[in-house]
Design brief:
There is one protein chain. By secondary structure, the chain is of the alpha/beta class. It is about 45% helix and about 15% strand. The strands form two sheets. A seven-stranded parallel β-sheet has the order 4-3-2-1-5-6-7, with helices on both faces. Strands 9-8-10-11 form a four-stranded mixed β-sheet, with helices on one face. α14 runs antiparallel to α15 and α14 runs parallel beside α16. Bound molecules: magnesium ion. Magnesium ion binds next to α7. This is 1-deoxy-D-xylulose-5-phosphate reductoisomerase. GO terms for molecular function: 1-deoxy-D-xylulose-5-phosphate reductoisomerase activity; manganese ion binding; NADPH binding.
Length: about 400
């Protein structure tokens, strides 16, 4: 078996640690070449390096670099803003498990180096869609999604050789912890309630995004970038009107593709992120290790219902930004990161997240996403506007209290 060298950006996060599980489970297939993270948890990174023995350890934050280098004399330690992106040329596959817009440099460096990108960092693809599409055309570059829904669609699309036979994509959503509740009822839910996801174990940012359905909205844009927009031979000609969201609380069907003959292919598995991670690492092969095999004798029922767009406004905001295109998805993403951080810090209510994003998008300047610098500038401008909107929300809440 050809050994696949893997670099792991964001190794200390939820995707990172589950990727290490997959790599360890198939040590004859995968070789961990490098790991990297922000460096804010040096002790975790040191422990990972001692256990999994990568040759290179990278940290974007330089403050802990000396401590890490002293603890790992056998490793090459790289530190600084470009350290994570520098891992791109050290492996056959780079897993981008960085959280948020900060993952953009890893996405672009990996594709520009003509390597396979196992993408869990959906924010970089959403914010910088047009720029990432150009980078995807680099010879050898390949983008395999780690997001469970997009991994599912990637599998379902293998059911046809004719791209024009794809009718629509159906993204499933668990509905999050607040499915079935009204907007008024949800106005003042606590951070702990929003973090209690019913089916998936994930990091805090994406778990809050799941509670607002912004995660699904970002995934609609992600699906459009991955499978819709023509990028060389990568596109299926799918527009936003052909990407639907279906709420499926059991999280067993991870997404579906409907073809022109009205046949629908679905991908089913237990809600375990190690499966889409393993799929992206081993593709076009499959890993041999089963993670959470379905027990059909106890599975029971699979339910489906439409999303409640009145309550979960963020899903509509994402469609709106996706259709607007250009830097609008970058604005959506930046405003969401600002609002979620404020919610997690206890500064705003759950219902304010959508308000901050909506008010920010209302001020979108319509700039195109012409290159990486334009996207970074759009991200900064949107954060500035979102911070102002946040202050207005906080001030209004204070006045009402
Ligand atoms: Mg997902």
């Amino acid at each position: 078996m050809t050994v696949i060298r893997v670099a792991l950006a964001g190794s200390t996060g939820s995707i990172g640690t589950q990727s290490l599980d997959v790599i360890s489970a198939e040590a004859d297939r995968f070789e961990l070449a490098a790991i990297g993270a922000t460096g804010r948890q040096p002790e975790v990174l040191i422990e990972q390096a001692r256990r999994h023995r990568p040759k290179i350890v990278a940290v974007s934050d330089t403050s802990a670099a000396a401590e890490i280098a002293a603890a790992l004399p056998e490793c090459e330690v790289r530190a600084g803003a470009d350290a994570l992106a520098s891992l791109a040329t050290e492996a056959d596959v780079v897993v981008n498990g960085v959280v948020g817009f900060a993952g953009l440099s890893v996405t672009l460096a990996t594709l520009d180096a003509g390597r396979r990108l196992a993408l869990a960092n959906k924010e970089s693809l959403i914010a910088a869609g047009p720029v990432v599409q150009l980078a995807r055309r680099t010879p050898g570059a390949e983008l395999v999604p780690v997001d469970s829904e997009h991994g599912a669609i990637h599998q379902c699309l293998r059911a046809t050789d004719n791209r024009s036979r794809v009718e629509r994509l159906l993204l499933t959503a668990s509905g999050g912890p607040f499915r079935g509740r009204s907007a008024a009822d949800l106005e003042s839910v606590t951070v702990a309630e929003a973090l209690a996801h019913p089916t998936w174990s994930m990091g805090p940012k994406i778990t809050i995004d799941s509670s607002t359905l912004m995660n699904k909205g970002l995934e609609v844009i992600e699906a459009h970038e991955l499978f819709g927009t023509p990028a060389g031979d990568a596109g299926y000609g799918i527009g936003f009107d052909e990407i639907d969201v279906v709420v499926h609380p059991q999280s067993i069907v991870h997404s579906m593709v409907e073809f022109t003959d009205a046949s629908t292919i679905a991908q089913l598995s237990s809600p375990d992120m190690r499966l889409p991670i393993g799929y992206a690492l081993a593709w076009p092969d499959r890993i041999a290790t089963p993670f959470g095999r379905i027990d059909w004798s106890t599975l029971g029922r699979l339910d489906f219902e439409p999303p409640d767009l009145e309550t979960f406004v963020c899903l509509s905001l994402a469609y709106q930004a996706g259709r607007a295109g250009g830097t609008a998805p970058a604005w959506l993403n930046a405003a969401n990161e600002v609002a979620v951080e404020a919610f997690l810090a206890g500064r705003i209510a759950w219902g304010d997240i959508a308000r901050v994003i909506s008010a920010t998008l209302d001020q979108h300047d319509g700039a195109p996403a012409s290159d990486a610098d334009a996207v970074v500038a759009a991200d900064l401008e949107a954060r500035r506007i979102a911070a102002l909107q946040l202050q207005l929300v906080v001030a209004a809440t204070g006045a009402n209290a």
